[in-house]
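Progress note, project year one: complex with copper (II) ion.
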Amino acid sequence: MTDNREHNDQSKQEVELSSGVSRKQFMKNIGGAMLSGGLLAGLPLGNKSAKAASASNGRGRPDAPKVDRVAADPRDIPSPITRNRPVTHDITLESKDVISEIEPGVEFKYMTYGGQVPGPMIRVRKGDKVNLTFKNNSQNTLLHNVDFHAVYGTGGGSKATLCPPGQTKELHFKLMYPGAFIYHCAVPKLDEHIASGMYGMIVVEPQEGLPEVDHEFYLGQHETYTNKDAGEKGFHELDTEAMKSEDPTYVLLNGEKKALTEERYGAMETEVGDTARIFMVTGGPNLTSSFHAIGNVWTKAWREGAIASEPEEYVQTCHVAPGSCGIFEMDFPVPEKSFLVDHALSRYNHKGMLGVIKVEGKEQPHIFDPQS
Ligand SMILES: [Cu+2]
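Model obtained:
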């Protein structure tokens, strides 16, 4: 009886979470659909496009709902877990193809989980069970599925969830080990699907929970390969030749160029004296992030999201490999704008990879005194 009630309480939370995302996305789709249509025909081709056009398969601009934003809100994640008993979660994950902008004027067909990049963060506790419903939206055109690195079993569930458009599949699993893990699409052309945005994170908290912090932020890096130059206006198609050469057009944090900065949707905000935890997932499909906070340091770092291990302390730059995650804690002793970059810096300088944490508060000249 008690078990049942716990199950129901938790189910309700999860269902509200998933339907909230869907509702928000639905409204975006409606708004976007009214604004979209035939905007980009007839623009001149740059060097890269001219070259790529001759090799193009001629698909052109595909038909998918237009949305204004795919960048996941880094604060829109489930709360830390405080319970001390296992529960069962009913979780629905839906794949959605959408057209959106990598940067203003640059359209791309994203494949997503839940209409956002990275896909919704799932948060559970070691020992919990999940009843997963995977839905492939009926407006999609391709097979999709989910491979959870948090799960023991064939393909991390990718075979069990393989699903044509308009259908749903179910998978039941138990979380046997703690950590932060990627989930991603794993169909035969999996590199194309991940380069189009199909990845997210499942956090399996250890039974003792996570240390208390003032803020948590959810970030994902992936790179995409298009048939036009970065910044060239128009519809960009995925360029499989560039992908095979691992020569990306864009390297992106939360799916769009400089999404989490003041010039787009706003920086992440903290105050002097606060602490923050960053959940970082690298989708790839090919590039390893050299993740670094300019003007700051990872106070604690759990590489690979291996939260059962002791953290390393005061780490400057951490590799987050494709198909992996990192958990990083930060202190903010002085006011600043900390730039989160991939320290392979051409990815920041030329390919769009940047997020900003704004730290507000009183200057602390005994720690940092710029004398100006
Ligand atoms: Cu897929």
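The pocket of copper (II) ion is lined by residues 111, 144, 185, 187, 193, 198 (CB under 6 Å).
Residues 126 and 175 are 5 Å apart (CA to CA).
No further modelling is planned for this target in the current period.
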